[in-house]
Amino acid sequence: MEPVTHKRIAMPKGRLSGLWFIIACCLLLPVLPVRAQDTADAATRDPHSLARRLLGWNGETSLPDITPLYEPGDTLEFWVGKLDSGEPTRIRATLAAAAPSVYVWVEEGLDYNAASMQQTALALDNLLKAVRWRGTYLSPNRMPATQGRVLDPANLYSLPDVDGDPHVYIVYTSDLPDDRDAIYNPIDSLPSYLAPGPHSNGHETLFVNTSPYVGTPLSDSVFIGTLLRAFHSLIVDTHYPDQPLWLREALGWYLLLQFQQTPITPTEVANFLGEPSTMLLHPATLTTRSTARGMQLLFLAYLEQRYGVDVVRRLFLEQGPGMTAVDRALAAANIVDPLSGETVTGEMAFADFVLANAVNRPFGDGRYAYRLIQLNQQAVSTPLERPEVRLGAQPAPQFGTQYYTFDAARPLVLDITFNGVETVKRLDMPGAADADNAFYWSGRGGNRDATLTRAFDLREVDSATLHFDAWYDLASGWNYAYVEVSTDGGETWSIIPATDTTDMNRNGVAYGPGFTGISNREGPRPFPVMGVLMAGDGMTIASVVPDGPAEAAGLQAGDIIIGYDERPWPGMPNVLGLLGEYAPGETLNLWIQRGNERLTAPVLLGAHESRVVEPTPRWLEQEVDLSAYAGQEILLRFEVVTLPGRWSEGFAVDNIAIPEIGFADDGDDEAGWVSTGWEQVTNSVPARYLVQMATFGGARPERARRLLTPDDGTSGHWRVDLDANERLVIAVSGLNQDTFQPGQFDLQIMPVG
Q: Which terminus of the chain, N or C, has fewer Cβ atoms within 10 Å?
């Protein structure tokens, strides 16, 4: 059990009884019309097409077996991905409780209280109905609402319903390999003839990981909150699978707070304000989870107070990459900026959000002040001690911000010069790679099936070998890339192994040997572990794991981690982020407060059983034996299949060659490939910057100004006059939606005269 990442979710008093009240009110909201989904593009994952091409499915279907009506005490076997297993693991679970729309199963070996689990099942049943009800996301009223029409079952979001059983199967298990508390595998919702292997459970199944909460009753509210977000994710997978992962995560947390009737608190966003370079659009990682959640929730709170709750609610129904969903929600609400008269876009809303985080003062039309949340701090900035400053090679995080502040002791006129690099990396490729070298790239994101196909004539050779370079960043065990050959004109395809393909298929989603994870042969290293559970403040040790590194170092429950290396935290405490800078076997010197005493505690870090640190992707040379197809005309294909809710930066190939027939393609020219979802690109994209300033604290009124937007290029020069005691804030953000790699800039500030 590793600390810090998991925080008990505070439910209203009365726990389940309070939840019952909220659910009951939600089910009385008025019914509103249903909005049609977006049309899928050609690169959208289609299990039917995949089954025809890769499994040889002939289109025949069959009715599922009639599912029994299970009763508490019955047992059932499930396939689930487990740690240290390359294939799905078969477990047996007991039905602990049942309700009209949920079955609650518990893996053998886990303890539970039957009466408490039955109460939990009834609460989850009502919670699932509320999450499935369309009015939850369309009502103009906040949850919970006042009296209205009784819920119409016809307005429930449908589930895949592979088994004809109205129940969602909830399985409490342990040792799941993901950094998620609950997992839904879309393969479980496929009939056997469409599933890529024999491991579909044939029911809508949610697996709950109990390992991070050793000793916590399975009826505890922490699992209720986990499952609410899992229910929401199941709805998104089914109806809005192209919703970006950052927005899915943000709305899941937002929904939880709404159901709890709990406002966003300063504590929720403190870690983000301590690290404002956090990228809004980047899916949260193990070490950025708390800062990402804080940023996402604060951004939604800003949208709600500025543009109204309807805009936030509409986000639940939108999808598309980057800020597309925000753009659509604002456009649907006809939001116009009162100062410029322009239709507000997601980027414009983000720009005002950036200054509000640094200023939080009510001036102008009030856009730079928070009203729905009382913040105790402003975004952390780099203080500039003198009016003459030259800062070189500063990072510009994409949809994150670097802040700089200068306090004028006397009246000053300052010249500000900004020079940003004109291009940034598209992908995290080695620095030595030629930015102008073209390659083929599958694109990023989930719920995709991208193919790159070409015909080859091998009739004149007795053997053939395919060579290519591969770069990939694919959700390990979930998203796969394949090399395929067809000899029947593309009707069916055979998956063939390459140098770095793997048979690892712990979740049962792979169609054959494929590339997954990170293209680096060093492989992931274990994440370091201290062996403590942290309290909600992120500083206080709630408990110490017996026989763990923390106990060996003499740490005790109640100790407060006030810093490390005898220095206080530079910003908000972030134990997980700090651990991410170390490796197992290294010593972390914690600085702790114990009563009135301050102590240094050297902790020899251990290795976590499941969490890992992924290496940086690299180009890897690949070789594929095509000799079995010598003497034939074939189609060769690269195919990348990604699942909803599973992020991937994609798969890239370059320097494709079959020497025996004289074929070579370095990606720079047209070479006869037919692409669905792939692009022929270089590893550079035009850089987009946002530079803003604000002043306050002097005798004159506060000022705010956008100095540079992407339409203005990548450099600029401005003159600013300051009064005595006036503070200048400069905020620099990257605004690229087509990369997560940071921009870079030089900033110079010089006094005039």
A: C
Cβ atoms 425, 683 nearer than 8 A: yes
- Beta-bridge mates of residue 748: 390, 417
Q: List, in order of start, the domains of the chain with CATH numbers.
A: 74-241 (no CATH), 247-359 (no CATH), 382-426+686-752 (2.60.120.380), 438-523+616-682 (2.60.120), 526-613 (2.30.42.10)
Cβ-Cβ contacts under 8 Å for 80 (sequence gap 6 or more): 88, 89, 91, 171, 173, 176, 207
For the chain, residues with pLDDT lower than 50 are 1-40, 142, 144-149
Pairing relationship of beta strands 382-383 and 684-686 according to DSSP bridges: unpaired
Q: What is the pLDDT of residues 393-427, one digit of tens each?
A: 999 999 999 999 999 999 999 999 999 999 999 99
Q: Which residues contact 457 (CB under 8 A, 6 or more apart)?
A: 633, 661
**pLDDT digit string (tens) for 473-493?**
999 999 999 999 999 999 999
- Round to whole Å and give the CA distance between 514 and 343: 45
Residue 251 pLDDT? 97
Other beta carbons within 10 angstroms of residue 21's beta carbon come to 14
Structure tokens at 198: 């024999």
Q: How far apart are CA 204 and CA 183, in angstroms?
A: 11
**Bond before 191 cis per omega within 30 degrees:** no
pLDDT of 581: 85
Number of residues written out for the chain: 753
C-beta separation of 730 from 689 below 8 A: no
